[in-house]
Amino acid sequence: MISKNALECIRADFSDIDEQYRNIEQEIWGLEETSIVKKYLGLQKKKSELATKRKNLYSLMKYGEYENCEHLWGLSMNEYGEYDCFCVKCGINDKAMKLSNRGKEDSLSFDERVMASVLEEHDYNDDSDINIVCDKELAMALYKKIREYHPNIDDKTVIKYFEIALDDIRNIEVSDERKKSRAKRLGLRRDFNRWK
Ligand SMILES: [Zn+2]
After folding, report:
1. I need a labelling partner for 20 at 20 to 30 A (CA). Which of 36, 64, 71, 162 fits?
2. Together in a domain, 108 and 61
3. Ligand 1 mean position to 107 CA, how many Å?
4. Of 129, 150, 183, which residue constitutes the final position of a domain?
5. Are residues 102 and 61 in the same domain?
6. Structural domain span for residue 104
């Protein structure tokens, strides 16, 4: 129980803090009347409205992009030692759906949530088109490079080039410097090291 003496002290402290609080509140109200702060508050409000619209449109746009892609499936090994199927073109990854099925939705990024919802709505063939297990980032970078050089070849030919390129990467030993410059050429992080 709080004693009467203690209560007196608490009351005094409260009244002191309350006065400071009200003074600051008054000061803030005063500032809100100035034109620059009015402008700031207006912009903040607009920004947060746009942020909501932007997020909704982004999710619709990604959904549509994943739906309209003619996927080319590759396989990667995840940290649980399982195979994940991903598309080398658009990056949709069935890891997102696996995690969401395991109730780990909280660990999904915004983009992965969109992926999971697309995968839940559509039945995709389980077969991988590319039968070499390969890191997703590397696979997407290789695909992009091959497409840059050969914009008009069909997917089957892309796979052939892809497998040759990956074989070379894995079988030809090069120095760390060369690996760094290769990562740079492919648009990967300089310290990328998941070549195998
Ligand atoms: Zn795709």
Report:
1. 36
2. yes
3. 22
4. 129
5. yes
6. 50-129
pLDDT at 64: 96
Supply φ then ψ for residue 75, to 5 degrees.
Answer: -125, 140
Both 164 and 150 in one domain: the answer is yes
Please report the pLDDT score of residue 30 as a whole number. Answer: 95
CA–CA gap between residue 147 and residue 186 (Å, rounded):
12
**Cα–ligand 1 centroid distance for 66 (angstroms):** 6
Torsion of CA 134, 135, 136, 137, to 10 degrees: -130
Question: 65 CA to middle of ligand 1, Å?
Answer: 8
Within 13 Å and on the Cβ side, how many CA atoms surround 105?
8
Q: pLDDT for 9-19, tens place per residue? A: 999 999 999 99
- Shared domain check, 106 and 79: yes
Residue written as token pair 């709080």: 2
What is the average per-residue pLDDT within 159-183? 89
3-state secondary structure of 159: helix
* Domain shared by 190 and 140, yes or no: yes
Identity of the amino acid at 48: S
Give residue 69 CA to ligand 1 midpoint distance, Å: 4
